[in-house]
Amino acid sequence: MAENKATKPVKTAKSTKVTKAAKPSKSAKTAKATTSVKVSRSSKPAKTAKVSKPVETPKHTQVFDLDAYSPAQIATRIDAVAAVKAKYNTAQTFWMGVNAGVFIALGAQFATLVISDSTLHFGLTKIIAGVVFSLGLILVVVGGAELFTGNCLIIIGYVDKKITKREVFDNWSVAFIGNLVGSLVAVFWMYQSHQWEFFNYMVGAKALLIANKKVNLSFEAAFARGVLCNSMVCLAVWLCFSARNVTDKIISLTFPVAGFIASGFEHCVANMYFIPMGIVLKTKPEVVAAAEKMAGKTLNLSQLTWKGFIVNNQFPVIIGNVVGGVLLVGIMFWLIYLRPKLNISFSLKEDFPQDKK
Amino acid sequence: MSDKAEEKSVTSTSQISSTPFIDIDAYAPIKMANRVGQVGIAKANLGALTTFALSILAGVFIALGIQLSMMVTHTATSNLGLNALVGGVVFTMSLILIVITGAELFTGNCLIAMSFFAGKIAGKDLTRNLIIAFFGNFVGALTVVFWIYVSAQWTTNNYLLGAKIVIAAIDKVNMPFEVAFARGVLCNTLVCLGIWLCFSARNNLDKILSLLWPIACLIACGFEHCVVNMWLIPMGIILKGNRFVIEAAERVQGENLDIANLTFAKGFLVNNLFPVVLGNLFGGIVLVAGVYWFIFLRQSRK
Are both A299 and A328 inside the same structural domain? Predict the structure, then answer.
């Protein structure tokens, strides 16, 4: 009887398939039945088998690449997507921007409702809000929409010279305007639905308190929160580019998105829903009364105006979002994975060789 | 040397791209739009009897989901938002059943309008499918009303479950037109988006997870789904005849109930179902199917 250690020293690219094929040689009978090559090899003593030639892979085995995309592949995919996004015409980008605005607003109102009268402790309430807020990003990523903050990643296409500066700014500006329009449309429908009356006006009160907190941030605080927020959003989008299926996408984006909402970071598109909703609800005395009862003190709503929305919140948050998305995630990953070969790497070898044609 | 060869084969992407390629990635939005278009054609061409039977099933599934949701949340007095979330999550059962078994839901079928906008099916086919689905859903929901009534499940917890159903039904029939319409729009936007996400899915886990967030949202946020109301309001109408249920409901509310509007013709059909159906149609056909058709399929018409 043969020692079947002989089948071990096979080293080809498709080694996994070969060992699989060689397994049946544990009993000489099945080995005979499978391939004659193996039988002849395995019938020899172990020592001589080591020097024998590698076994040819049977022709019918194929290697399918079903794994999640590797980090280097993610970078190339985002690079390619940037080119695709730049090719959309203005109407397409705009309407997908509107979609994104509505989706994020739906997530935001869902989060507001769920935590409106929560008596759980503060942190737990926040994380639940974050998990339900993922609705917005799930709809954006899986359903197809142009979110301004997520689109910061297409800077990779620009620095990789796939798209021009003009195309980047067109995409950003049109997506941004679309997001704003979508969010305001959602504010209109949510106001019409009178959902803010729920639970004795507590839903409206919560929305008012959230909005009031956002417009009273100092410039640096809003800026820093914007940076942190969009780093996490772009990382969530980055993770989604590794995904093969929808489950991968949903699970991988839930964690960063829940994280940034729970941490109280500032997302400019979410604020386009939160703050206008607060401004609209400010006119309702019942809501203000409920909010004051909830906060336990009289509220100073003087900053909760359109001016407060744009100057106090949107301005610093947008700058922060762009810095976070473009510099800290986009350029960073470009430097790691896609930078040109002449680089400052100390090892002077290509760490992640790319298939660039 | 062989080590080097192996390392190269693992790291280089050129090796990977030369291997046989099968596309197992989630469908991209443009492909989703095409798939919705094709499914729309198939659905519009189904035989009337098949459509009707499938839509009865959809009505039954929705009714089972909403009664579960009522059961789970019926005694909540604080943390109402979190309870609503749990109610929404359990309701997702209905849409999971519908999507995986392929039942015909009136609200979800609004997505068929994409095939209509793309010029693949006639407006007549779309209308026919929606009308059959609507009546099928109605029959299915009323069947469950019958079974749940006979099962006496509404006596659970000292009639508190029945009380919750009656209170919810009273809220729904006393809504102003614009409010019911707006809630209908938001509701069906979410339903259709949930189903839209399912078209990206390759497997059932994908489908379930992509339905979970939108569907939980629409029930938790109290939006108006016409098929849900086809179970909830008739159930309330039947239960209002029961003395114990009304007593329990008045105990919960702390005041006398105004059940004057809780009638089949005026309260249910006119006050609630009419605006909600209009809102559902607007949300599904215009805001989801129309917008996605505009974005992805408009050029392909030329």
Answer: yes
Which CATH number fits the domain that encloses residue A195? 1.20.1080.10
- CB contacts, 8 Å: B291 with chain A: 95, 98-99
Q: Same domain, yes or no, for A288 and A161?
A: yes
Q: What ipTM does this complex have?
A: 0.88
Nearest CB partner across the interface for A189, out of B186, B217, B294:
B186
**Would you give the DSSP letter of residue B27?**
P
Residue A9 lies in a domain: no
- Quote the minimal CA–CA distance from B25 to chain A in Å: 4
For A119, which of B12, B78, B216 is closest by C-beta distance?
A: B78
Residue-wise pLDDT for B138-182, tens only, equals: 999 999 999 999 999 999 889 999 999 999 999 999 999 999 999
A49/A78 same-domain check: no
Q: What is the pLDDT of residues A162-187, one digit of tens each?
A: 889 999 999 999 999 999 999 999 99
Q: Is residue A18 part of a domain?
A: no
Residues 210-249 of A with CB under 8 A from B: 243-249
Same-domain check for residues A57 and A196: no
Decide if A332 contacts A294 (C-beta within 8 A).
no
Task: Give the 3-state DSSP-derived string for chain A, with helices as H, strands as E and coil as C.
Answer: CCCHHHHCCCCCCCHHHHHHHHHHHHCHHHHHHHCHHHHHHHCCCHHHHHHCCCCCCCCCCCCCCCCCCCHHHHHHHHHHHHHHHHHCCHHHHHHHHHHHHHHHHHHHHHHHHHHCCCCCCHHHHHHHHHHHHHHHHHHHHHHCCCCCCHHHHHHHHHHCCCCCHHHHHHHHHHHHHHHHHHHHHHHHHHHHCCHHHHHHHHHHHHHHHHHHHHHCCCHHHHHHHHHHHHHHHHHHHHHHCCCCCHHHHHHHHHHHHHHHHHCCCCCHHHHHHHHHHHHHHCCCHHHHHHHHHHHCCCCCCCCCCHHHHHHHHHHHHHHHHHHHHHHHHHHHHHHHHHCCCCCCCCCCCCCCCCCCC
Portion 217-236 of B in contact with A at CB < 8 A: 217, 220-223
Q: How many domains does one find in chain A?
A: 2
- Looking at the structure, tell me whether residues A176 and A261 fall in a common domain: yes
Q: Do A138 and B19 touch (CB under 8 A)?
A: no
What does DSSP assign to residue B299?
G
Of A98, A110, A139, the CB nearest to B221: A110
Backbone angles phi, psi at B270, to 5 degrees: -80, -50
Same domain for A145 and A49, yes or no, is no
Containing structural domain, residue A224: 71-338
Nearest to B26 among A12, A115, A249 (CB): A249
- Assess if residue A20 is contained within a domain: no
pLDDT band at A11 (very low <50, low <70, confident <90, very high): very low
Q: Which of B27, B179, B197 should we substitute to test contact with A (largest number of A Cβ atoms within 10 Å)? A: B197
- Contact residues on chain B for A248, CB-CB shorter than 8 A: 26
Residue that terminates a domain, selected from A47, A63, A79: A63
- Does A226 share its domain with A115? yes
- Record the pTM: 0.84
What are the structural domains of chain B? 27-301 (1.20.1080.10)
Residues A308 and A204 in one domain: yes
Residue A150 lies in a domain: yes
